[in-house]
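Need tokens for this chain, all 309 residues.
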Amino acid sequence: MSRNTLVRPLALASLIANIALVVTGAAVRLTSSGLGCPTWPKCTDESYTTTQEMGVHGVIEFGNRLLGIVLGLIALSAFVAALMHKPRRRSLIVLALLAGLGIPGQGVIGGITVLTDLNPWVVGLHFLLSMALITATWALWQRTKEGDAPVRRLVSPPLRHLAGLTALVSAVVIVVGVIVTGSGPHAGDADAKRNGLDPTNISQAHADLVFLLIGLSVALWFALRAVGAPRPAVTAAALFVGIELAQGLIGFVQYFTHLPVILVGFHMLGACLVWVGTLNVLWKLRDRPAAVETTPAPQQTPAPEPAAV
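Here are the structure tokens for all 309 residues:
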């Protein structure tokens, strides 16, 4: 594989690794291993790695930290590949840099999370930064398939506005879901504090927003079909509705079964997939072809005039 083609697979690897970090972070919380390494940046006061005395909780928490290091190496590789890409593309470099800079930010917020004994608001910020990194890596992956010509809109402004409103509600659903998590059980440690909000009320608000999101998404799907939008856009909207319905089903089942850890873990993964589905819809409503280089037409040498007789 030539170095010019490395950015795309590395961008995809970075996207998958960021989603995996969310899932492993959920495993840390759901197994009450949030303070398996009770300090930061070391795992204990004497060691950067977990010790036998810390048991399985230390292994789980330290494993999540190791995945963060792997994620950083992938992001660094993607940035180097973007720098070496020929021809050099500024958009790839900027997106790879943003994705890379978020990794140490995650480490710092993760350290603050440990040092504040799993403050639920800091834990929520940790998750939201992961959503931002998923956005950056998704954009990087998509830009490797596009050209650098101006963006071309494939649907009318009213449909773009509906899609934008749907994306906004999707983001709000995720944020409120984070607050719901901070109000319920599975804090990551038996002694960790909760955010003090009533779990029933905040869960009801979250459910109401989910219903709104599904309604907007179905409306967008029907509208795209009605106007004969490009098939990729219609397919992306249909896929988004399917992801939402699956995520909503998991959410309702986990709520009425008192939040079993396996379903909560799948719900965390589903939150990532909902956001990826949101981004996918937005991307399919536009395209960006390769820039066409125009070369000046060669100048023709005028034919010599006939000699006078």
